Amino acid sequence: MYRSAIRELELDDIPVFCENVRQCDIDEIKASCGLTPEQVLNSTLYFHGLSALLSIEGEMVCIFGVTDLLDSRGVPWMIATNNIKKYPKSFLKASDQIFPVLIEGFEYLENYVDTRNTTSIRWLERLGFEIMPAEPFGVANMPFHKFRMSCNV
Q: Which domain holds residue 44?
């Protein structure tokens, strides 16, 4: 198994990370809010919640987090680089370690995923999220699935 490391996201990480973001994540972000991955990641540093970087073998794999809505609900999110394809088993193992930390203290998690992002949908299902039927969403009014989960606090 490959070595993985998780640490808090730093501002200097963002430009380097964004050089290798998966096209499906670029497309999803543009369709949902009309921004670039760099703009979205810069904004996460100012929201209440967790933002962390997962590296495997020293390569940036994904940045993930939960934005705290301050009412026991959280908005989980993740943006990945193309490096995620190199380390699928290590990523899944790290996900199993990350996820309990993400949901700690929340009663409910919810967000939206682009219907075109089938890899992320399968990953969300693996984590136990309920995937709702697709509906128009975001600035592009494209089909997205709402995903949600009740958490045991």
A: 4-150
